Amino acid sequence: MELPQMPELMGLSLLLGLLALVATAAVARGWLRAEEETSGRSAGQKANGCPPDKSLKSKKQKPQQRIRKEKPQQHNFTHRLLAAALKSHSGNITCMDFSSNGKYLATCADDRTVRIWSTKDFLQREHRSMRANVDLDHAILVRFSPDCRAFIVWLANGDTLRVFKMIKRDDGGYTFMATPEDFPKKHKAPIVNIGIADTGKFIMTASSDTTILIWNLKGQVLSTINTNHMNNTYAAISPCSRFVASCGFTPDVKVWEVCFGKKGDFQEVVRAFELKGHSAAVHFFAFSNDSRRMASVSKDGTWKLWDTDVEYKKQQDPYLLRTGHFEEASTVPCRLALSPDAQVLALASGSSIHLYNTRRGEKEESFEQVHGECISDLSFDITGRLLASCGDRAVRLFHNTPGYRAVVEEMQALLKRASNESTRQRLQQQLTQAQEALKNLGALKK
C-alpha cells in the first residue's frame, strides 16, 4: 500500500526546507559582518589621518581629480620687446579700449567683469586695476565715453548695450554703477563692433548682417545704415567723429558722414567716399589719429594705406599711398591696428603679430604665439609707443620699435631741410630721444 508512506515524505520535505532557511540566514549574517568590518576599517583610517586603501576609494573623488586636470593654465610668452602683461582677469579677454585722455585701458572678459587699468603703471612691476561687475551676463565689447567718466558694453546674452558710470568715492577710489535700463534690442544678427563718437553726439553699433545703427546717448535710434556688403566683418567711428566706415564680403571699405546741425541736432547720414582697390573681401580697417589716413587688409593677401584727406563732396577719391603683402590674410581672418601717426601697421593672424613700416612697406618685427587663443583685439596706445593685444586671460604690451625708427628717419630728413636754429634744436631733441629709446631696447640699428 502506498498511502501509509505520505506522512513520512512530507516530514522529510519540511526538514530539508528548514535546513535551507538556516543556511541562508547564516550566509547573510556573515556578509553583513564583513561589510561592517570593511566600513569600520575605512572610517578608522580616515579618523587616524591615513590614506584609505586604493581599492576602497569612493567614486566621488574622481570628478575632483578631473576638475583639477582641466583647470586652464596661463599661456606663457616672453620677448625682448614685451613691456608688460596684465593678468587680473580669470576669463578670456574679448575687447579693450584706451581712454581718449590716455590715462586708462578698459578690458572686458567672459569672467563677467570689466577692468579699468592705469596706463602709468604699465612699465611698473605692479599693475593696478579697478573692477566693474556685469550682473547676470558678460561683456564682449567695451568703449570709453569721451569724458572718460563712463563706458558702454555690449552684453553677450542680452544682445544690447549697457552704460556704466564711474563714480568717485569719498576715499578717492571709484565705483561703477549701471544705468537703470539697457538699450532696446534692435539688431537681429551677432554684433561686430560698437563705438562712441569723441564729440559725444552719437553711438554706433554694427551687426554681422548689413546693419549699422546710429543712436543718441538716450538709447533712441537716429538712423539705420544698410551697408550692402552681404555681411559686415567690421565697422568703426573715425577719431574726428565725422565718419562711420564698414567693410565686409565686398572688396571695398564704405565711409559715411554723420551730419549734425549747428545746434547739435542730428540731420542725416550720407555716403562720403569708398576705398576701392582690393580684389577680395576686406577683413579689417583702421583710421589714423587725425582721420587723414586709413589702412585696410583683405583676403586678397594685401594691406593698403590710403590718404583720406580729400574733398569728397567734390567727388575726389582717396589716394592709395602704399600696398604691402600679407599672405596670411588670404587664408585666415586678420585684425589690423594703425599707429596714431600712421607710420606703423600692426597685423594679427591667429595668435601672432607682425609690424610693418608704412613708408617702405617692410616688415620690421614679428611676435609669434603671443596668446593661447586667437588674438581678439589689437590697439596702439594714444602715444604710439606701445602696442596692446589680447586673446586669452592677459593683455600683452609691446614696445613699438618700428615707430621709434620711423621717428628717427623723419627727424633726420627734416634736419636736412631745417632753416633756423630753434627748429633744428627741436628736431635734434626728438631724434635723440628716439635713438635713446631704441638703444635701451637693444633695437638701434648700426
Automatic annotation (TrEMBL):
Signal peptide: 1-30
Listed PROSITE patterns: WD_REPEATS_1, WD_REPEATS_2, WD_REPEATS_REGION
Single GO BP term: endoplasmic reticulum unfolded protein response
A single GO cellular-component term on record: endoplasmic reticulum
GO molecular function, one term: phosphoprotein binding
Biased segments, Basic residues type: 57-69
Transmembrane segments: none
Keywords linked to the UniProt accession: Coiled coil, Isopeptide bond, Phosphoprotein, Repeat, Signal, Ubl conjugation, WD repeat
Domain of life (superkingdom): Eukaryota
Coiled-coil regions, chain positions: 408-444
Gene3D superfamilies named among the record's database cross-references: YVTN repeat-like/Quinoprotein amine dehydrogenase
Region (Disordered): 35-74
Name of the protein: Transducin beta-like protein 2
Organism: Ovis aries (Sheep)
